[in-house]
Amino acid sequence: NRVYVEHWLDTPTRMLASFSTNLTNDDISNDSPIKLTTEFFKFFLPDLYKIYPDNNLTLWIYVTKHVTFDVNKAGVSGRAEGTITWFVHVNDTLVPAFTLDAQLDLCVNLQCSTRTPI
């Protein structure tokens, strides 16, 4: 099996995936210090807080290009590009606040050991 795995890792493998989701304050654990509210982000987005104090936020996260993963001997790398649109809850209506273009690059190095644990 070890030879097979090494041979498989000699040939880079590319996988594609798509991803879109909405994230609301209800999706965040009550134990988390992070909240999707204008109150939580008031130091980063003071103008938004001034206009909409103490309102909940919803994030619409859309991938604009397929998420790619490359698997090879050195490790796993991935890339995602998309947009994150921020909405403020106002009287049961989602009011668009702004949209961010986002890019995420990920690299994980793999290391295997043949030592047997004692």
Short précis:
The chain is mainly beta and 118 residues long. 13% of the residues lie in helices and 50% in strands.
Topology summary:
Elements: H1 2-10, E1 13-17, E2 20-24, H2 46-51, E3 57-72, E4 75-90, E5 93-109
Antiparallel strand pairs: 1-3, 2-3, 3-4, 4-5
Q: Percent of residues in beta strands? A: over 45%
Task: Give the overall form.
Answer: elongated
Task: Count all strands and give the number.
Answer: 5
Largest sheet: 5 strands, antiparallel
What's the overall average pLDDT, rounded? 80
Which structural class fits the helix and strand makeup? mainly beta
Explain what the structure shows:
By secondary structure, this protein is mainly beta. 13% of the residues lie in helices and 50% in strands. It contains 2 helices and 5 strands; from the N terminus they run H-E-E-H-E-E-E. The longest helix has 9 residues, at 2-10. It is elongated and about 60 Å long. The two termini are 23 Å apart.
Keywords:
118 residues, mainly beta, 5-stranded antiparallel beta sheet, 13% helix, 50% strand, elongated, disordered N terminus
